[in-house]
């Protein structure tokens, strides 16, 4: 059996934390995964790098860019796969960022934990071992970035954190789980449509995400137009609708040439224009808003950032964001 070298990049998160005497979870100076005894496939060796040691709330696009650059380099360093350990709070965003920007076939697997190293029922080591198994399996090549926790494999494009504390927190509401790990096997259940990948150089853009609600007025949107935002994501109602007042605010932003991207605040389903009245998706689109079809607000924000960094405007930006 040929030897397979897996690059492991630790970034922090609960998987690298421990519980103190009061039961509070805190960061560890040394990542407990480093000294842990783990069971990995016989022909696999690890090259471990502690790229960050941060709670994932402290991770933003600048850190994602550092990871992107390290992974681009790793692609020509003879690795068979890559594992990134990460806090679960923003794991889906880092996974999506890398999935949208890295045009590489190597398996790239993100994992994390909901319970820290010394908590009863800690899931860190188990998920770490699972991620190494998936990253060293040939079937995982060319599938884009994968998220592995709790015996499940999810596609970065669709995965989201669904529960505050349950270890079964990650789900893919639109597509369903992409694969499963059993004691002996890794089973993929479907292939995804091809990804649209663009490179990234600069992440210095200001793109807020706003959630719509019943009775939303347009005041905040108009105030935002006077700030230095590069675009805005609105988590709209249902299939992608807003109150009349918010729709007027959207028109105001668009008249100032600020891209407005519509996603749904609903947890499941695809956002698309359906209703033709003031605030309805059809009229929002006619006014110039862009529908980002199948992603949530936090991912749409990264996608807009990537699109703008690639100088996409007007129809090209629309097409990019709409692509599934
Ligand atoms: N707050 C933690 C983090 O994202 C949660 C976790 O890792 O599960 O860093």
TrEMBL record:
The keyword Cytoplasm does not apply. Substrate binds at residues 56, 88-89. Gene3D superfamilies: 3.40.50.40, L-asparaginase, N-terminal domain. GO terms for molecular function: asparaginase activity. Residues 5-191 form the L-asparaginase N-terminal domain. One of its GO terms (biological process) is asparagine metabolic process. Coiled coil: none annotated. It is an enzyme of class 3 (hydrolase). It catalyses: L-asparagine + H2O = L-aspartate + NH4(+). Its EC number is 3.5.1.1. Keywords: Hydrolase. InterPro entries: AsnASE_II (IPR004550), Asp/glu_Ase-like_sf (IPR036152), Asparaginase/glutaminase-like (IPR006034), Asparaginase/glutaminase_AS1 (IPR020827), Asparaginase/glutaminase_AS2 (IPR027475), Asparaginase_C (IPR040919), L-asparaginase_C (IPR027473), L-asparaginase_N (IPR027474). The active site is at residues 14, 88. Residues 207-320 form the Asparaginase/glutaminase C-terminal domain. Belongs to the asparaginase 1 family. This is asparaginase. It comes from Leuconostoc fallax.
